Amino acid sequence: MSLMSVAEVAEYLGVQEIRVERLERESLLVSKDKDADGRPLFDREDVERYKVFAERIGGI
């Protein structure tokens, strides 16, 4: 499992970091761990699956 930070996910999805944090709060992206600052870390495969799903339903 490869973990991605909020910044990495935001860059990959092409959105702002605040949007990634909101997706996590709404359980649309589930974090697997927390970093030293308490910010969520996401599994790369989950993020990739979310991006495919979001594109199918009309965007992120």
Task: Assign the structural class, choosing from mainly alpha, mainly beta, alpha/beta, alpha+beta, or little secondary structure.
Answer: alpha+beta
Mean pLDDT across all residues, rounded? Answer: 94
Rg on CA atoms, Å: 11 Å
- Largest sheet entry: 3 strands, antiparallel
Q: How many beta strands in the DSSP annotation?
A: 3
Which regions contain 5 or more consecutive residues with pLDDT less than 50?
A: none
End-to-end gap: 23 Å
Percent of sequence in beta strands: 5-15%
Helical fraction: 40-55%
Spatially, the strands of the biggest sheet line up as: 1-3-2
Secondary-structure element sequence? EHHEEH
- Individual helix count: 3
The global form is: globular
Pfam families: MerR_1
Protein name: MerR family transcriptional regulator
Organism: Fluctibacter halophilus
InterPro entries: DNA-bd_dom_put_sf, MerR-type_HTH_dom
